[in-house]
Automatic annotation (TrEMBL):
InterPro entries noted in UniProt: AAA+_ATPase, ABC1_TM_dom, ABC1_TM_sf, ABC_transporter-like_ATP-bd, ABC_transporter-like_CS, P-loop_NTPase, Type_1_exporter
GO molecular function per UniProt: ABC-type oligopeptide transporter activity; ATP binding; ATP hydrolysis activity
Chief site of localization: membrane
Keywords, ordered alphabetically: ATP-binding, Cell membrane, Membrane, Nucleotide-binding, Transmembrane, Transmembrane helix, Transport
Record has GTP-binding as a keyword: no
Protein name: ATP-binding cassette domain-containing protein
Bilayer disposition of the protein: Multi-pass membrane protein
Annotated ABC transporter domain residues: 359-594
Segments of this protein annotated with the region Disordered: 1-22
Transmembrane regions: 42-59, 79-103, 150-176, 182-205, 264-287, 299-323
A Pfam family annotated for this UniProt entry: ABC_tran
Domain (ABC transmembrane type-1) ranges: 43-325
């Protein structure tokens, strides 16, 4: 599918601004872009809908002729012949209608499939900045509910809206051939319906926007409730979460009721206009039949045409009622598709590295979008193959942010992050992924088996490689103890294993990939002291040739590192070995003294 633009091939500093307040043509642009691959079913839909509409318009004329010249005259043969013709036309009408709906559904479902695929692909290209900007609940809503709104609008448009103008124009024309004065009744009803259409479109746009935001809110609360259920239970905050959900639910309900009131008003107006029009036609038609100026068959045909015309208008009103919500949904989808990822591969991206994995962070300054203060200021750090570089500091010092800059989850504002002398902003992201292995602060496992999670690092790894990684990560024993071993099923997020097991499996996943640079972001925090020590010893033996950068809160985890970098409020305030820093750096000494006795520290 090529409906959305391809990924940019030049570096950008910021995504263009987007928003929900798209012009009215947003849904038309979206449909035009994504319906091109479905031209054939679209064309067939148009053809069959036209055939179905013409057939439906022809039936009342045949019926009038049958009544006037067959039933009224007592000509049974005429009735049989015209009845057979009416049956044939009806069969054609039903067949064309069924085929029109079928091909319309194919085009619409194809559009929905392509939209979802492109939205997913676009989100895959987003950096952490874009993910923070949109938020996971909103992106889920846009990929599911918003796409459904657009697809439903297209289905209704192809099956209803397309036939409405043909039915209205054709019905009025044929009604004129039956009785010109009576047609004035239909012409008088049209302005009333037009006013109702304008009212609905005006009222539905803001209501539709509020509804979509309400769905975002429901998704956000539900997602947080499900993922944080253990914390909620631990703090007995069930009532608080219930109130949060009730507030979000009430907001969505209020928006839905506003939409429902608009729809109810239209339904009552449309029914009143339809009934009053029928009454007027019968009243005037009865007088004209009594005067001999109209035949009974023509009156029946006229009533049928009136029903077709008003019915087509009311059906098209259903499209108009959905259009505002679909427009809002299309704008929200467009906002995602038109947002250029802030982190992209340059045109001449470096695809291979000459060295063994040397990391240099030079004078790096970084500020999160919208933040007043920089998180990191002029930070320097080096990591060499066969060495361990540790980063320690108080909470909020910028340790995790520093590690996230290496695999280019964010781009630096000043300075540079280099691997083997090459700026990561000039490297192909696939090369970065092969070179840098990050074990995040919050270990995340995907739904599937232990083996499928471990092979996330290397899809081609055999079982022997998996077990070797598990042995190094001190996870082999508990995996062997599981009934299915490597085939043991893991719940989404790794909720079926303990925090320490989850951390060790995440470390094993990175070990399977065998990168040149390992980044451990407080990845040993859930381990007991003995397991921590055993794991670090195993890592020293298994990845002795790789560069390691370890962020940790425990001094015992990093005291044997070749180089320790002390961060304080986003700045490097000390670099050296444990002994050197303990003697010369008050910040490091304070951290050590808060965890170890004087004898242990030495």
């Amino acid at each position: 599918m090529t409906g959305n633009p391809p990924p940019d091939t030049v570096r950008r500093t910021a995504p263009p601004a987007g928003g929900e307040d798209e012009p009215e043509a947003s849904i038309l642009r979206l449909l035009a872009d994504y319906l091109r691959p479905h031209r054939r079913p679209l064309l067939l839909t148009v053809v069959f809908q036209i055939v179905q509409t013409l057939a439906s318009l022809y039936v009342p004329t045949l019926n009038a002729d049958l009544i006037n010249n067959g039933v009224a005259a007592g000509d049974t043969g005429y009735v049989i012949r015209h009845g057979a013709l009416m049956l044939a036309v009806t069969v054609v009408q039903l067949t064309a209608a069924a085929l029109g709906v079928y091909y319309g559904a194919r085009a619409s479902m194809g559009l929905g499939r392509d939209l979802r695929a492109d939205l997913f692909a676009q989100v895959q290209r987003f950096s952490a900045a874009e993910m923070d900007r949109f938020g996971a609940p909103s992106l889920i809503t846009r990929t599911t509910n918003d796409v459904t709104q657009v697809v439903t609008m297209l289905v209704m448009g192809l099956t209803l809206f397309l036939t409405a103008p043909i039915t209205a124009i054709g019905g009025l024309s044929l009604a004129l051939t039956l009785d010109v004065p009576m047609t004035g009744v239909l012409l008088a009803a049209i302005p009333v319906v037009a006013v109702a259409i304008s009212f609905i479109v005006t009222a539905m746009i803001p209501a539709g926007r509020v509804m979509q935001r309400g769905i975002d809110g429901i998704n956000r609360v539900m997602r947080e409730h499900i993922t944080g259920i253990r914390v909620i239970r631990a703090f007995v905050r069930d009532d608080h979460e219930q109130r949060r959900f009730s507030d979000a639910n009430a907001e969505l309900t209020a928006a839905s009721l506003r939409v429902g009131r608009v729809q109810a008003f239209f339904g009552a107006t449309a029914m009143a206009v339809s009934n009053l029009t029928s009454i007027a036609i019968v009243w005037i038609g009865a007088a004209r039949i009594a005067d001999g100026r109209m035949q009974i068959g023509d009156l029946i045909a006229f009533l049928t045409y009136a029903g077709l015309i008003l019915g087509s208008v009311m059906m098209s009103m259903g499209v108009f009622m959905m259009a505002p919500r679909a427009k809002v949904a299309a704008g929200r989808i467009r906002e995602v598709l038109d947002t250029a990822p802030s982190i992209i591969d340059p045109v001449d991206a470096v695809g291979e590295l000459p060295g063994r994995g040397e990391l240099d962070i030079d004078g790096v300054t970084f500020r999160y979008a919208g933040a007043e203060e920089a998180v990191l200021r002029g930070v320097d750090l080096i990591a060499r193959p066969g060495q361990t570089t540790a980063v320690i500091g108080s909470t909020g010092a910028g340790k995790t942010t520093l590690l996230n800059l290496v695999p280019r989850l964010f781009d630096v504002d000043e300075g540079a992050v280099r691997i083997d002398g090459v700026d990561v902003r000039d490297m192909d992201r696939a090369l970065i992924a092969r070179t840098v292995g990050l074990v995040p602060q919050r270990a995340y496992l995907f739904s599937g088996t232990i083996a499928s999670n471990l092979r996330y690092g290397d899809p081609d790894a055999d079982d022997a490689a998996l077990w070797r990684a598990l042995e190094t990560a001190q996870a082999a024993d508990f995996v062997r103890a599981m009934p299915d071993g490597l085939d043991t099923v893991i719940g989404q997020g790794g909720t079926t294993v303990s925090g320490g097991q989850r951390q060790r499996l995440a470390i094993a996943r990175t070990l399977v990939a065998r990168p040149k640079i390992y980044l451990f972001d407080d990845s040993f925090s859930a381990l007991d002291t003995a397991t921590d020590a055993a794991l670090r010893a195993a890592l020293a033996a298994d990845i002795a040739d790789a560069a390691q950068v370890i962020v940790a809160q425990r001094v015992s985890t990093i005291r044997d590192a070749d180089r320790i970098v002390v961060l304080d409020a986003g700045r490097v305030v000390g670099t050296g070995t444990h002994e050197e820093l303990l003697e010369s750096n008050p910040v490091y000494a304070e951290i050590v003294n808060s965890q170890l006795t004087l004898q242990e520290a030495r």
